[in-house]
Amino acid sequence: MSRSVAGPEIERLIQLMARLPGLGPRSARRAALHLIKKRETLLGPLSDAMRVAAERVVVCRSCGNVDTSDPCTICTDAKRDPSLIVVVEDVSDLWALERSGAVPGRYHVLGGVLSPLDGVRPEHLNIEGLVSRASEPGVGEIILALNATVDGQTTAHYVTERLSHLPLKITRLAHGVPVGGELDYLDEGTLSAAIRSRTAF
Amino acid sequence: MSRSVAGPEIERLIQLMARLPGLGPRSARRAALHLIKKRETLLGPLSDAMRVAAERVVVCRSCGNVDTSDPCTICTDAKRDPSLIVVVEDVSDLWALERSGAVPGRYHVLGGVLSPLDGVRPEHLNIEGLVSRASEPGVGEIILALNATVDGQTTAHYVTERLSHLPLKITRLAHGVPVGGELDYLDEGTLSAAIRSRTAF
Ligand SMILES: [Zn+2]
Ligand SMILES: [Zn+2]
């Protein structure tokens, strides 16, 4: 039913826009038309910003954050507490926690959670890197800031097991996080409270 | 509350994404992160597609459609009925009607509707261009395919008045269009039926 009604250049733009999360075919068409109408003020600048991001954004080999430097700005921030590492599933969770301003330390992005159903096993996540970082002298606490889902909590248990030989305090977020909820959708206040009230794991 | 948590290159990408219709700040962050993760398969190609669109898409000086040629592909399509012009508010409505496959003729995009409250007056719309095209020999019918809103119908009356000196049949879409609804949200079947059952204006 989706006849090609614009030229191939516009159709390609629409098709690529439709692959963005949150945009279906219809909203992709609206977004593409909006871009074409705002050629000078939005389409050109957005194309440039994407080009810059495509060329310059790298993944931090230490923590898994995305930034234009490796190690990233957070890893190289001397004002951060070197004894604290907050383990998250995804960069979006790192961003959400940073917005809360409640993390004095650094992060470690696992890149997912264990999921037997989806075939995600420990070797698919950046767990070796976490064990390595957690083994460094001066690290005293690991906060497991994983989603309050079954897979998230399974992953938390697995990570705890993998770190059990180290003299670390391992904590998790307080149950201010709604059961079944995802970090990235929570407001800053809830995330702050959950960090403050973290409990021994 | 929106602390800058990523580098300036990523923040700029997020801010520009947030200006797209249908994306708020949160979904813009998710979309930007999705793009960064799909650098090779989506971010690069989308940047290129936007660059191509920014450089090559033009507005057809005859009908107001957007395309990479002026006059546009529809205006230069020799298989189209030269006696019929379908007047629409926006290019999105042209696209919607083209998807229905029910228009054998060409289009004229007004670029909006008259709206005293929003200060949109006749000189802000491409009405002169329509009068000029409608005056050409061989044009026999003008279909007013405007939204079934108060402003859309006000505009239809105004356009009819401006064309009244010409020996034309002026029609409007049948009332298959829901009252108060907007063309771009209708399915192809409803639009086809509305074109087929068009009535004298
Ligand atoms: Zn880092
Ligand atoms: Zn045209």
Tell me what the structure shows.
The structure is a homodimer of 201-residue chains. Chain A has 201 residues and is of the alpha/beta class. Chain A contains seven helices and seven strands; from the N terminus they run αααβββαβαβαβαβ. In chain A, helix 4 links the parallel strand 3 and strand 4 (106-109). In chain A, helix 4 (91-100) crosses helix 7 (188-196). The mean pLDDT of chain A is 90. At the A-B interface, helix 1, helix 2, helix 3, strand 2 and helix 4 of A face helix 1, helix 2, helix 3, strand 2 and helix 4 of B. Residues 60, 62-63, 65, 71-72, 74-75 of chain B line the site of one zinc ion. The site of one zinc ion has 8 residues of chain A, from loops. Chains A, B: GO terms for molecular function: DNA binding; zinc ion binding. Chains A, B: Pfam families: RecR_C (PF21175), RecR_HhH (PF21176), RecR_ZnF (PF02132), Toprim_4 (PF13662). Chains A, B: Belongs to the RecR family. Chains A, B: It comes from Salinarimonas soli.
Blueprint of the fold:
The structure is a homodimer of 201-residue chains.
Chain A: H1 8-17, H2 25-37, H3 39-56, E1 58-59, E2 66-67, E3 84-88, H4 91-100, E4 106-109, H5 127-134, E5 141-144, H6 150-162, E6 169-172, H7 188-196, E7 199-200
Parallel strand pairs in A: 3-4, 3-5, 5-6
Antiparallel strand pairs in A: 1-2, 6-7
Helix pairs in contact in A: 1-2, 4-7
Zinc finger (C4-type) (chains A, B): 60-75
Function (chains A, B): May play a role in DNA repair. It seems to be involved in an RecBC-independent recombinational process of DNA repair. It may act with RecF and RecO.
Protein name (chains A, B): Recombination protein RecR
